C-alpha cells in the first residue's frame, strides 16, 4: 500500500474518536448541560464499576488462550518500558521547566501513562473495519486485535494503579508537607523573658533553628519509614479495581479450557452470562469517549500551569516516546522476541504514541492536587493527538508491512 492510502486508513479512526469527543464537549456545555459534573460522576461510576469490567472480562475470555498469552509475553514488558522511559523523561521535564512541587507528580504521570485501553478500543477496530486495511480480513484482524487491546488495557490498568498512583501520591504528600512547613515558619515565637542589656537570650527563635529541627525530624521519618510507607502507599482497593478484577476473570476463563467451554460459544451452557457481559461492555467505548470530551470543557478555563510544561509533555508523548518505541519494537523483532505478525508490532509501537491516560485525572481528583491543571493538559494533548496519532499510525503501518 502507498503512503497516502495508509494515511487515509490511519485518519479514519482518529476522526471517529474526535467526532465522539466533540459530542461529549457539546453535551457538557452550560447551555445543554446533559453531561454536567453530577452526570459525569454518575456515568463515570457506571463505566468504572459495570461497563469496563464486563468489557474486559468478555474480551479476554473470548480472545485469550494460553498459546496467545505465551506469544504476547513481550507486551507487558513493552508497556513497562513506556512507563519507565516516560517517567524518566517526565522527571527531566520537571527539572528543566522547574514545575511547582504540587504538579511534579502530575507531569511525570502524564509522561509515563498512555491511554492504553479506551483509545485502542476505538482505533484498532476502526482500522480493521477499513476495506483497504493492511492487516488482512476483518474477522482475522478483529480476533487478533481484540486480544492485543484487552491485554494492553489490563496490563496498563495494573501499572497505572500500582506505579503512577504511588508517584502522584508521594508528590502530593510532599507538597502537603511543604505547605505545613511553610506555615510553621511564618509563625514568630516570642519568649516571655525580660530584655536587659545583660541578657544574652534572644527574644525570637531563629527560623534556621526551627528549620533545622523540622528538617531533621523529616529526615528521620522519611529515612526510617520511607520504604514502608511507599509500599503501604499502594492502594490495594485501586490496584484490584473492578476493571482489574474483570481482567483477571477474563484471563482465567480464557486460559482454562473447561471454563471457556462453559461460557464462550454458541453451544456453551452458560453462554447467557457471556452474552450479557458483552452487551454491557459494548457501552464502555462511547461512554468513556463522551466523558473525555466532557472533561475537556474544564480545560478551556484558565489554569496556573505554564505553557512550557504543556509543550514539554506534548514533545515527550508525541515525539520522544514514539521514536524510542520504534527502536524498542524493531530491536525486539530483530532479536526474535516479537513475532512477525504486523498487527502485533503495530500495536506495540502505537503504545508509545498515545495521549495521557484519563486515569491521571481520576488520581489527581483523589488527592485533590492539580485537578484544573490536569484538565488543561488533557485538553491540549488530546487536541494534538488527532495529528500525532494519524502521522505515527501511518508511519508504523509502513514500517511493519
Automatic annotation (TrEMBL):
Its main location: endoplasmic reticulum. The chain crosses the membrane at residues 6-29, 41-61, 73-94, 106-127, 147-168, 239-259, 279-297, 309-331, 343-367, 379-400. It comes from the Eukaryota. InterPro entries: Mem_transp_PIN-like, PILS1/3/4/5/7. GO terms for biological process: auxin-activated signaling pathway; endoplasmic reticulum to cytosol auxin transport. It is found in: Endoplasmic reticulum membrane. Involved in cellular auxin homeostasis by regulating auxin metabolism. Regulates intracellular auxin accumulation at the endoplasmic reticulum and thus auxin availability for nuclear auxin signaling. Belongs to the auxin efflux carrier (TC 2.A.69.2) family. This is Uncharacterized protein. It comes from Chenopodium quinoa.
Amino acid at each position: 500500500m502507498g503512503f497516502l492510502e495508509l494515511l487515509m486508513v490511519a485518519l479514519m479512526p482518529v476522526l471517529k474518536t474526535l467526532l465522539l469527543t466533540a459530542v461529549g464537549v457539546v453535551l457538557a456545555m452550560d447551555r445543554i448541560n446533559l453531561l454536567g459534573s453530577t452526570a459525569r460522576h454518575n456515568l463515570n461510576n457506571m463505566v468504572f464499576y459495570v461497563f469496563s469490567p464486563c468489557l474486559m472480562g468478555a474480551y479476554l475470555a473470548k480472545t485469550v488462550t494460553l498459546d496467545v498469552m505465551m506469544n504476547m509475553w513481550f507486551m507487558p514488558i513493552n508497556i513497562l518500558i513506556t512507563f519507565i522511559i516516560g517517567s524518566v523523561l517526565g522527571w527531566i521535564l520537571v527539572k528543566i521547566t522547574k514545575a511547582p512541587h504540587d504538579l511534579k507528580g502530575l507531569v511525570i504521570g502524564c509522561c509515563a501513562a498512555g491511554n492504553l485501553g479506551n483509545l485502542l478500543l476505538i482505533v484498532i477496530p476502526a482500522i480493521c473495519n477499513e476495506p483497504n486495511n493492511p492487516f488482512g480480513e476483518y474477522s482475522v484482524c478483529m480476533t487478533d486485535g481484540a486480544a492485543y487491546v484487552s491485554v494492553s488495557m489490563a496490563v496498563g490498568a495494573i501499572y497505572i494503579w500500582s506505579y503512577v498512583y504511588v508517584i502522584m501520591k508521594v508528590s502530593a504528600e510532599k507538597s502537603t508537607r511543604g505547605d505545613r512547613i511553610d506555615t510553621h515558619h511564618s509563625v514568630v515565637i516570642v519568649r516571655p523573658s525580660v530584655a536587659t542589656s545583660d541578657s544574652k537570650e534572644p527574644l525570637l527563635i531563629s527560623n534556621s533553628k526551627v528549620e533545622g529541627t523540622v528538617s531533621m525530624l523529616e529526615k528521620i521519618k522519611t529515612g526510617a519509614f520511607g520504604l514502608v510507607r511507599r509500599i503501604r502507599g499502594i492502594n490495594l482497593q485501586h490496584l484490584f479495581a473492578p476493571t482489574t478484577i474483570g481482567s483477571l476473570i477474563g484471563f482465567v476463563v480464557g486460559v482454562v479450557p473447561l471454563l471457556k467451554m462453559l461460557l464462550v460459544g454458541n453451544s456453551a451452557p452458560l453462554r447467557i452470562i457471556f452474552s450479557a457481559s458483552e452487551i454491557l461492555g459494548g457501552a464502555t467505548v462511547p461512554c468513556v469517549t463522551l466523558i473525555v470530551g466532557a472533561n475537556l470543557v474544564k480545560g478551556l478555563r484558565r489554569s496556573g500551569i505554564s505553557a512550557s510544561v504543556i509543550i514539554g509533555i506534548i514533545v515527550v508523548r508525541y515525539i520522544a516516546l514514539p521514536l524510542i518505541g520504534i527502536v524498542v519494537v524493531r530491536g525486539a523483532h530483530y532479536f526474535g522476541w516479537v513475532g512477525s505478525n504486523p498487527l502485533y508490532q503495530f500495536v506495540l509501537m502505537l503504545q508509545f504514541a498515545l495521549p495521557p491516560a484519563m486515569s491521571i485525572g481520576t488520581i489527581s481528583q483523589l488527592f485533590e492536587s492539580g485537578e484544573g491543571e490536569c484538565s488543561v493538559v488533557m485538553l491540549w494533548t488530546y487536541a494534538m493527538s488527532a495529528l500525532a496519532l494519524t502521522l505515527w499510525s501511518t508511519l508504523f503501518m509502513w514500517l511493519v508491512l
